Amino acid sequence: MERIYHIRNLYFVKGKSIRQIAVETGIDRATIRKYIEQENFSDAGPVYQRRKSKTEPYRDQVRRILLEDDKSPRKQRHTAKRIYDRLKEQAVSTSQEFPVSERSIRYLVADLRTELRQSELAALPLLHPPGEAQVDFGATVFEIKGVRFEGYHLGITFPHSDAKYVQLFKGQNFECLARGLSDIFQHIGGVPTVIRFDNMSIAVKKIKAQGEREVTENFRRLQCHYDFESNFCNPASAAATTSSRSRRWQISKSSTANC
């Protein structure tokens, strides 16, 4: 995996040609081309699919309602309950089943309002060049259907815009890191060029002389898949402080997988 990452880094980041890489590494061009064109770097393990939410068929309609509300006076805008009643009335009028609870619609409305706020923030002019991010895990407490969990939040911060995204998990292992980053990358529609991490054991296997890191096999697979460069903090230094500011982070599509 180290060889694959090195080849892809030379091609995608350093901008070297296949011929130059072949001369520099001594690897034949066919092998280099295969690694460059490879898209799937996950190991051969079981594939788990997220269960589709019952609110998914109504997501676009609710988003349109909220966008229309932005053009209306505040007192005339829909509450979550009014949106639920409207969807239910629509289903009854067309003799369709409506197997969604009011609480589920409330969660959907909250999720979409957060998503729309993030879209507005993304449209603000940036004062610094984009491209770098910081990632860190932090302890947090959350509830799912009235059940209290002492879990973790995976936070990714973009210093150039001060944008922050958070995913919630019950664990703090590599599956949580990969799932959280994947969801956030999909949500923002891109991948940072450089990401700074602390020395979490799920990413760093050993700290070598002169500060070099020997990363884990799974972390290197993640890098190969998304083609980002990594930096690591000095020992005892955090990638992103989890102070009172973390409580104000905008939460994107929260995940609470059993990681």
List the helices and strands and how they pair.
Elements lengths: L1 H12 L4 H8 L3 H9 L21 H11 L10 H14 L8 H21 L9 E13 L2 E12 L4 E7 L4 H15 L5 E4 L6 E4 L5 E3 L1 H10 L2 E4 L27
Parallel strand pairs: 1-4, 4-7
Antiparallel strand pairs: 1-2, 2-3, 5-6
Helix pairs in contact: 1-8, 4-6, 5-6
Summary, kept brief:
The chain has 259 residues and is of the alpha/beta class. It has helices at residues 2-13, 18-25, 29-37, 59-69, 80-93, 102-122, 174-188, 217-226; strands at residues 132-144, 147-158, 163-169, 194-197, 204-207, 213-215, 229-232.
Give keywords:
Nucleotidyltransferase, domain 5; five-stranded mixed beta sheet; alpha/beta; 7 strands; disordered C terminus
Question: What's the CATH architecture name of the largest domain?
Answer: 2-Layer Sandwich
What is the name of the CATH topology of the largest domain?
Nucleotidyltransferase, domain 5
Radius of gyration: 22 Å
What percentage of the residues does DSSP assign to strands (E)?
15-25%
